[in-house]
Amino acid sequence: MEIASLEKFLQERIKVAGGKAGNLGDSVTVTRDKSKVTVTSDGNFSKGYLKYLTKKYLKKHNVRDWLRVIAANRST
């Protein structure tokens, strides 16, 4: 499993303000470092929705049982 594929998955699947999937515009950016994917939003963005998409990706690659999705802190 590569982090680049997770980044691509999120860019293709995130919906902004009820729009179509993959149409992020300037309001949401998805970036990655070596082993970290960061999603930054200008407006309101649901952390639960991001966890849902990430868990969906992990399930698709059969690694959801071994990995856990967490947030850096309570407010992010």
UniProtKB/TrEMBL annotation:
Belongs to the eukaryotic ribosomal protein eL22 family. This is Uncharacterized protein. GO terms for molecular function: RNA binding; structural constituent of ribosome. GO terms for biological process: cytoplasmic translation. It comes from Lolium multiflorum (Italian ryegrass). One of its GO terms (cellular component) is ribonucleoprotein complex. Keywords: Ribonucleoprotein, Ribosomal protein. InterPro entries: Ribosomal_eL22, Ribosomal_eL22_sf.
